[in-house]
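INTERNAL AUDIT FORM
Audit reference: QA-55
Scope: verify that the stored structure record matches its stored sequence.
Auditor: D.O.
Record contents follow.
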Amino acid sequence: MIYNELEDLRKGMTGILRIAAEQVEILAAGILQKTFIDDLIYTAVFSDHEDVRKAARWIIRRAGAAAGIHSASIQSLYEAMGRKEAAGFTVPAINIRALTYHSAQAVLRAAMKLRVGPVIFEIARSEIDYTRQRPEEYTAAVTAAAIKVGYGGPLFLQGDHFQINAGKFAKDPDKEVQAVKDLIWEAIEAGFYNIDVDTSTLVDLTKTTVKAQQELNYTLAAELTTIIRDLEPAAVTISVGGEIGEVGGKNSTVEELAAFMEGYAGELQKIDENMKGISKISVQTGTSHGGVPMPDGSVAAVKLDFDTLGKLSAAARDIYRLSGAVQHGASTLPDEAFDRFPAVGTAEVHLATGFQNIIYDSSHFPTDIKNRIYDYLNKDCRREKQEGDTEEQFLYKTRKKGFGPFKRDLWELPTGRLTSLGAELEHQFSFLFKQLHVGDTKQIMETFVKPEDVPLPVPAGLKE
């Protein structure tokens, strides 16, 4: 059921949830988990009225808190990794572009079975736009998924690639930087307590020294870090990530890491010598977002430089006390590559397109919807077709942009199809968790991560 009136939403809660003093009390946990959480999240995403959507999102987040589910920062665990008190695993950061409520359930089911501790749910600046998921909606969907599967504990929600667009920056730098600052504010209010700022798009390799190449990168990264520290809740230290090499570009070097870190630290000290900086550093070692499609639509084999990745991770920990290096664009790598990430000390690995491919290529994904999405792409995204691309390459590169316009069609697939797609995703998540050695890390995470319950003001429509 999707509620379109606040009064109907209030009536629907009767006997299941109760609002009192800016909190939500769970009266019937079984009904909430079995059916009512479905009504809440579908209302939070698809109700006709914004005030009803916002009310449902607030109820979900506060019901989650009542069930022991809290948005959390991974900062303290990453600090422990920097001190080498926690090691031997690589934290998976999963971008969910489609069926967020259902996909997050698959992630959490796999995590609970394997006693996984740290797993990050993230969405990038670009994904927010083309999947039509604002941070508040994304938080509600992941929290609702946690309630649905009976998960309790921290949820690590992350803004991935909160990126400065180089083209827009060249035309109007103040406007582009302000757009990222506004997104940071929106994300923090939505419970994103992990944010990766990406100013690596502004690295200028034409400059004669590495420091000069990285100068605009580290200066703006420090400026965005300051904004995050100003906006973060009093009881939370947000985990901030930086980036020294744009994914798909030249491979990063330890010299570039040093230039960035020294310049970045100097910029922070100008503002506040005690300000916490980044907890991890994203690098480029040979991957590209989504992989490289071949003319037949298959994905080219990627030669990832694990030796460089290991050296950068070691330097990040040994010299700068960071958790290590972060690898982007990894989900389309061959299966045998993933256990090498923990072997070389990678702190975090970002995974996205591979899960999108599972959904699109599944026998349980309806052909009629796929054809409608492809028709839409051929009409609305045709200008993105590059000279020399085959139709298969064009569709592979652009089909991520079909998830937003067809979001409701996907969420309203028959239950059997959703269950089957969820099972396929869960199988892949389980495989990756094992390869990344995050099984049986729940106790390690709980040792270092102590989530705080950050108060949320009651929406006007729900006040007594």
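Auditor finding: record pair retrieved intact. The chain has two domains: 6-67, 69-359+415-448.
Action required: none
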